[in-house]
Amino acid sequence: MTACGGITYWLAEHQAVVGFRWSPAHSWGSTWSFLVSSVAVYALLAATFEALLRLLRRTRPVPLGPLPVLHSLAMALASAAIFLGLLLSAAAEIRDARWYWRGRSGTTPLRWLLCFPPGTRSSGRVFFWSYAFYLSRFLHLLGTFLSVLRRRAALAGVLRHSALICMSFLWLEFSQSFQVIAILAFTLAHTIVFGYRFWAGVGLPVVARKGAAVVLGCKVALTGCNAACHLGFVLLHFAKGGCNGIGAWVFNSVLNSALLLCYLKMEARKKKGD
């Protein structure tokens, strides 16, 4: 077996990947009670950290040593693995389903990526990596506590991370359409951003003052990709007989809109303060 063949096998053909099924009996963290309690505990801990530092009148950043760099490395590696695994798994699913699409449904690879057929269940390769993405959101939460200890504003991070956990849970719970492209976009952006932070954190040469530009560029690209996916999903849903997970899509759209509104309000307040 070649190196490429071995990677493909472990990431897209292994029984644990192919035989994955989202259910409380088989998947850790797959219940509504876990979702609600984990988000509540996370928000409470973040608020407690912030309150303790204010009580101690700590205004300077707390020395964290290599923790931020290690967190960036872990996030970059996890995101890269999910990106590659999902890319290979999506290609394998398209390969295996082509005969069915040609014979009966008329589905194309692009249509499948944007619009799962009604009745799709959260099982198989792509949902294994969707589950991995869901679990990686909990690793991402550590960034909030690092920000608090660095004495940076953490409210926006708490809201954003909580929303991402809820969103990735709903993707699995309702087999929401277009999540494949969304996860690929998220993980690619996170690989670049956290990879850059790790690179800069260990003291390797970087272009001066380009960190903010890298982060901003990834956010803009991610926003554009999500907007295009939403538009394609809506068009296919109404033109081609429906897409799976429309209810979850509506909820996520409202949630994302609310977060965007909060973000814009906070940015406006910052500019007024300056």
Average pLDDT rating: 84
Helix-residue proportion: over 70%
Number of structural domains: 1
Structural class: mainly alpha
Helix segment tally: 11
Q: Unreliable segments (pLDDT under 50, ≥5 consecutive)?
A: none
| Strand residue content | under 5%
Largest sheet: none
Q: Secondary-structure element order, as H and E? A: HHHHHHHHHHH
- How far apart lie the N and C ends? 60 Å
The counted number of beta strands is: 0
What general outline do the C-alpha atoms trace? globular
| Rg of Cα set | 20 Å
What order do the helices and strands come in, and which of them pair?
Blueprint: H1 3-13, H2 15-18, H3 32-55, H4 67-105, H5 109-114, H6 125-140, H7 142-149, H8 155-173, H9 179-201, H10 211-239, H11 246-273
Sum up the structure in keywords.
274 residues; mainly alpha; 11 helices
Commentary on this structure:
This protein is 76% helix and 0% strand. It is mainly alpha-helical and 274 residues long. It has one domain (3-273). The longest helix has 39 residues, at 67-105.
Task: Give me a quick take on this structure.
The chain is built from eleven helices and no strands. By secondary structure, it is mainly alpha-helical.
